[in-house]
Write a structure and sequence with these properties.
The protein is of the alpha+beta class and about 170 residues long. It contains 3 helices and 4 strands, in the order βαβαββα.
Length: about 170
């Protein structure tokens, strides 16, 4: 019959001094008849062995697995951050298309209803913010929002038209 793993019993202070994480929740000992309660006991599962070197080897293996999981999770985190930023850029592009379409509808509706120059507005604009993931200098990722300039295309079109008019005008 295979031998059962030995159980190493220590209090929380000893466990934290060794930087060991419990594999089970702390178990409270029953209090003595005097009514004093004891500190919770952490039970750490260790591999069966007659050698004291086996315990550190067990935790080295656990550390290696934890490092691998952390590295894998960081790669997944980076991938998710890139995906959020790509979706945010695509959403900003779709919003720009929406504002361009609204501008065309508003222009055409003014032509059709010559009576009221400010009559119809196909869309009401409010503040729009999009999620974005940025990386701080220390490497920490920050999930935040950034504003979307809904009038950017209108301003760019106005400036371009102004430049073309200025170019076509004779200068004294």
């Amino acid at each position: 019959m295979a031998s059962l793993p030995e159980v190493l019993v220590m209090n929380q202070r000893q466990a934290s001094a060794l930087c060991l994480a419990p594999v089970a929740k702390p178990v409270n000992r029953q209090s003595r008849p005097s009514g004093r309660s004891h500190q919770p006991v952490l039970r750490l599962l260790c591999p069966p062995s007659s050698s004291p070197d086996a315990v550190p080897a067990f935790f080295k293996q656990q550390d290696s697995q934890a490092r691998h999981r952390v590295q894998s999770n960081f790669q997944q985190l980076e991938s998710q951050a890139d995906k959020i930023n790509q979706l945010s850029a695509a959403l900003e592009s779709a919003i720009a298309e929406l504002t361009a379409t609204v501008a065309e509808i508003n222009f055409d509706s003014r032509l059709l209803s010559r009576r009221s120059p400010n009559g119809f507005a196909a869309c009401e604009y409010r503040e729009v913010r999009l999620p974005v993931v940025r990386q701080k200098s220390a490497g920490r990722l920050v999930l935040m929002t950034r504003p979307v300039d809904l009038r950017r295309q209108e301003r760019e079109a106005y400036l371009l038209a102004q430049q073309l008019r200025d170019r076509d005008r004779p200068h004294p």
